[in-house]
Amino acid sequence: MTNRDQWTSKLGFILAAAGSAIGLGAIWKFPYMAGMNGGSVFIFLFIISTILIGLPVLIAEFIIGRRGQADAVTAMRKLAPGTAWPIVGKLGFVLSIIILSFYSVVGGWILSYLVRSSVFLAGGGMPDDFGMLFDQVIADPKEAVLAQAVFMLLTVLIVSGGVKGGIERASKWMMPLLFVSFIILAVRSLTLPGAMEGIRFMFVPDFSYLNGHTALLALGQAFFSLSVGIGGMITYASYLPKDENLTKSAWSVTGLNILISILAGLVIFPAVFALGGSPADGPGLIFVVLPAIFTNIPFGGWFMLLFFVLMLFATLTSSISMLEITVSIGIRNKYDRRKRAAWVYGLIIFIVGIPSALSFGLMADVKLFGLSMFDLADTIVSKFGMPIGAFLISLFAGFVLSKTVTDEELGGPSAASAAWRLLVRWFCPAAILVIFVSTLAG
What is the pTM of this model? Predict the structure, then answer.
């Protein structure tokens, strides 16, 4: 057994944790979820859910991880020996496999677009219809599965490198580049004729969307984008030194997540309305609308290449956190097994994800509960798995961990730690339960 790895700096941890959030959750999923669910109302509910529910649960995961100094299963076994609570960690293990199984499919789409961007720059020319191009990419079974395999290969290579040599090093330079790129794209999108319609869509509320269904979707998005409810942040926090301020780190991750989500909306929605598109175009939004923006920009081919390179970076920072969950649980603190575990679990996740990769082509007619394999995996995680996981983690942190333990991890007794304990004990579980039950009843 080798010594347990640690982050080399606070910035490295924050960027890695934020990278887990600021990936497809913020850039791919947030815009299309907002577009399909009323824009401003969904965004408002997302921000409220993130701060009042997601943030306290995130802090709870940080506390469990650092106190337990292990993955979610082992940490809960240490902190609550002889109980059934480690099942929560095992639930996160299963959910992380499901998430990465369809997440890697989208990562493959990004790789496909990256290759096409290079071809465009080499003289291949821009396509006239990006919607048709996207349909071709996701429907081709060979390309979809091959691209998914290459994406999983990249993820495995990074995770097998460990915390310092793989995850932290990759996050430190990927995330700043993504942020700068999105600012440039947002400025260009906001200067397009008709862009103000997109601003109104984002910030002028349509209260017809204010219902339990939208609230649950916004809550699921908050959990998805913060990567809470599956134990990923428990794993990341287990690599933290004892002198790290957990509350400040959690606020940094949460603030960056909200900022990038809004920034992604400012890139997408002004362009959607300016170019005559529909905000409800769904998962293909960044693959249809954003490339169309590039055709209206000088050196658009280079911008498109840059964007999909950075999208690949952002997607990888999220995917490595999902694979890290399975690897950390699988090796059970036997760190010399990390590389082998990364390859084994990477292969398993790739195989599990093949039906999602084929959901838009060979298996387009295969439905369960009226959903494609891709949508089913997303629904299991976002509408059920993550809210249930967050609910149980809240109860664990609020009622199983003593006040002495949580106060120690939060820097001592204070008004802030008392407020957090109140939220995580009563408000978060109640809010999750009410929204969840109202949606099932509706």
Answer: 0.83
